[in-house]
Records
---
Amino acid sequence: QKEVEQDPGPLSVPEGAIVSLNCTYSNSAFQYFMWYRQYSRKGPELLMYTYSSGNKEDGRFTAQVDKSSKYISLFIRDSQPSDSATYLCAMSTTRSSASKIIFGSGTRLSIRP
Amino acid sequence: EAQVTQNPRYLITVTGKKLTVTCSQNMNHEYMSWYRQDPGLGLRQIYYSMNVEVTDKGDVPEGYKVSRKEKRNFPLILESPSPNQTSLYFCASSARDRGHEQYFGPGTRLTVT
């Protein structure tokens, strides 16, 4: 079993829809939960991160962590064609660079105009 | 502009011909690493470096070498490339105490025939 599981998609939704992207994990020691966005032919870029449980909002994006279920989500409100990309979840135990980051395999998202 | 640069961006080579992919960052980051990204397998870490002259193996180090003689540079060396090293390669860096915030380069698409 992989430490981090992510549905690869592809996921196609109409513009303006609410998008929900999810990951599950098995290591209860994970404390930092990140979402990276990767456009085609580009490197991943950090979208947002959450420490421990709870929600974090940044504009149209909301990251949610449920440690009891070992489940994290990224919600995108009022989705735009420019949100079309692959979204990778990632996790680590501490914020130190000595902690290994485990990446999900990514979900490819397409927003239809 | 804070960035991680990689060269070349695209490379086609033949089995056994030594090659080097360069990586440079201008953020004075202590931590640097190399990943390969393959469909369905996500990002897998090849090697990482916690600081100058300090390197260590990641999850898939076989067939690769690295060096860290300067803080800003972290080249990836394939001494005798094989077709199973055909992949998309990313260099990444982060500050020592912000390992969850990885900055990725634009990627190098390598094809070994």
---
Amino acid sequence: LAKTTQPISMDSYEGQEVNITCSHNNIATNDYITWYQQFPSQGPRFIIQGYKTKVTNEVASLFIPADRKSSTLSLPRVSLSDTAVYYCLVGDPGAGSYQLTFGKGTKLSVIP
Amino acid sequence: EAGVAQSPRYKIIEKRQSVAFWCNPISGHATLYWYQQILGQGPKLLIQFQNNGVVDDSQLPKDRFSAERLKGVDSTLKIQPAKLEDSAVYLCASSFPTAGGKGVYEQYFGPGTRLTVT
């Protein structure tokens, strides 16, 4: 499974755009990149998933360069409720035993 | 749509006692996972089921942990005997074996059971 590296923590003011970058140098051809969000005392929650270029949904955007060795999660205009830990994961969903290997994640603190 | 249900939410036991956790996945999800999350770390996969068969249990400490998924629906995770280092949150997750309706491969997590071993 590809290893990921992301910042341990980030601070941001309310209303700003936050970009969290994840490095995954040994990503495999069939791997997808997925981001999860976790609030205290809750299980992780799926945010977004992509394979290449750009993916956007109602809560975030995911930017993946052509070499796929990194990815950036973009959260537009964060609010206090976005304070959470964000995990970047890579894996092959078609492998028959699709698994998620979580690192320590990035703890995002949104400041009023 | 009902989410993944887990019980109990909290459990405090003494070391060497036994404990069991229960999980009810989202209806129709064939794949079920148990994770252990120690404070300050990301979740670690313990075991993965596909229907009622084990897909991967390579990180399950089999001398003290066991899990089953009878009839391919509910699952239980047991620890016997518990050690101090088993204090953690135990998360259950479920998913379709393939991409869901939105075309993504998504795991749905329950709220977890917080275990404290004293």
---
Amino acid sequence: EDQVTQSPEALRLQEGESSSLNCSYTVSGLRGLFWYRQDPGKGPEFLFTLYSAGEEKEKERLKATLTKKESFLHITAPKPEDSATYLCAVRGRGTSYGKLTFGQGTILTVHP
Amino acid sequence: DSGVTQTPKHLITATGQRVTLRCSPRSGDLSVYWYQQSLDQGLQFLIQYYNGEERAKGNILERFSAQQFPDLHSELNLSSLELGDSALYFCASSAGTGVRSGANVLTFGAGSRLTVL
């Protein structure tokens, strides 16, 4: 059974204070690791897909990296508008494209 | 606006009742997915339809059922509701083709919040 564990559960940062969110996963044959952002009262919004160890993707202040056991979401010089819940999900071998296993998320709060 | 439309946004009902949640996917997307989000379980995959046919099932209860219509909109039916069914129900859509193409990115709607009293 695929499993995803995210840490920390919550993270408070000052504006400009860089940090990283962790996503540890167990999956039989990784077919994709996904990062989503979720704002209160809204649905998850797609950020990145990573497929193989060593892969990196960047978008503005966010950078996602992948190893064989975990993924990191690095946030550089965050701003208050980066405050949200960040969700990590995986798809394993033999599962449908949209059947993702999500972690519990990391609630990020960035103070001005 | 993600392009995925869900109605109703909020729904309050009583135990034992039945409700229907509706989802219109993004224009051109053939796949529809239903997820349940609760505080203790997080986001859980329920079921997927592709162009009207069921493609994958998760831990969906027997009291729950879904279908996708010829116009590609989908409905999730929840019956004999229990207190524990209170949750956010999300619909997502994708073009549903390819392995590594952007077509497999799930676009989520804003969700339907169900409260069972």
---
Amino acid sequence: AQKVTQAQTEISVVEKEDVTLDCVYETRDTTYYLFWYKQPPSGELVFLIRRNSFDEQNEISGRYSWNFQKSTSSFNFTITASQVVDSAVYFCALSGNTNAGKSTFGDGTTLTVKP
Amino acid sequence: EAQVTQNPRYLITVTGKKLTVTCSQNMNHEYMSWYRQDPGLGLRQIYYSMNVEVTDKGDVPEGYKVSRKEKRNFPLILESPSPNQTSLYFCASSPLGGPAGNTIYFGEGSWLTVV
């Protein structure tokens, strides 16, 4: 069985602060994929990143960065200099090669960025 | 424009009245899936389909049926809806192989209320 844990239910920061959203996963697969999605107040799901288990390089995209550490089974997401438009629910998700059709989501972290 | 289209977007129905939520994608994707989103529970997978005529249960299939007679459509059927099926439903698609290794494209969501 696979599992994704986002221990932070809600985070509130003031604009321009940096914030890190934690994601810890469990899987028996040796090949697997991790995802982050953003769900703004309007409700749609926006794909942010996909990372496979063989690529532990950190990734940066503008103000967003991701830290993947297999040793701790974590795939954390950092927003630098947060903005009000970053306010959303963020989901971490996992899919493994053994059962390629199944995807498991964490419960989500609600981020509120105050002006 | 590449998209996943769900209908209806909003529906209030009564217990026991059969309903179908349609999902259609125009990207020629082999993989399609249904999720439900409930407060504090993230997204949970209901059913998925790796290709035409192939469907599999996700984590919460009880009370739902699906069919995949053609590539572009993947309807979700609630034969006898109950109030505990009140939820936000998302349909998704991705290329061959499913979410393991591919980006998932989500529909805009369908708000379903069963009274």
